Formate dehydrogenase oxidoreductase protein
Amino acid sequence: MRGHSNVQGNRTVGISEKPSAAFLDSLQRVMGITPPRHHGHDAVKALEAMIAGDAKALICLGGNFAVAMPDHERAFPAMRGLELSVHVGTKLNRSHLLTAKETFILPCLGRTELDLQASGRQSITVEDSMSMVHASSGKLKPASPMLRSEPAIVAGLAKATLPASKVDWQYLVEDYDRIRDLIEQTIPGFENYNQRIRHPGGFRMPLPPTERIWPTATGKAMFSVFKGVHENVVVEGEDVMRLVTLRSHDQYNTTIYAMDDRYRGVFGRRDVLFMNEQDMAAQGPGAWRSGGYSYRAAGKRADAGRYHGGGLRHCAGHRRRLLSGSQRAGAAELSG
């Protein structure tokens, strides 16, 4: 799942359902393989293929796929209808329990755990949102001596599936520097990769806008002005508001680290739906305090469960509700 803390780094090294022709050409030149040229599926298209029965197997390198999807009523049965599902992860989550006809859960080392391979202690690399690339090496004793690293698991799957492959998978796993050497040969911007990640703080990837390089017709940055939420068309009726999700404290995407959201004064729970005080008043006394909510997405209505209400002074007049920690988005209305 390209949605964790290294999402930018994943994209940089070509993890995409629509890799560019230049990247595929370079990959073919360096690795001596012929990569497929047709585009793959993003998360939503993958789910649609599962629902249609066109996709029968799912291999997840991390993530909580089904919970991250906005329509659980369709995503959960689709997961259970697969012929095969394989999950590589550091801890159990809901998607792992939506078992297919055959389901394999492969625990892996976390970033904080010591990764020892044939050449010794290993480091992986990550890229932050400022385009800085640095090494990350765990120090803690692994939770189990049987745990394997993600590169070791991927290489093992590849070796077992493609025994005649030109790639020496075991050789790469023995020393992650060898993987980075191949990245350096394949992707621009990674010159002297292994040398530069050993400097404190790592190095910065080339980023054209910071060098005042704009790929536009004028060669200059182009700005667009958004008129504001008051320009939104009411699509469901005056009593129906837009439901959006937002970041909350101690939660990162589908992972909840604690039940407190100190950003908004919420403690001990995550089932809180926020709306503007003016909108609360318009709904009538107590209507928003605690009750059931339904939501509509893609023209279909579904139960969103029970949530507790909370008020916000800002966003005055905005026709929307803010639901901390939910993956659902669409139009929401009070039903009790």
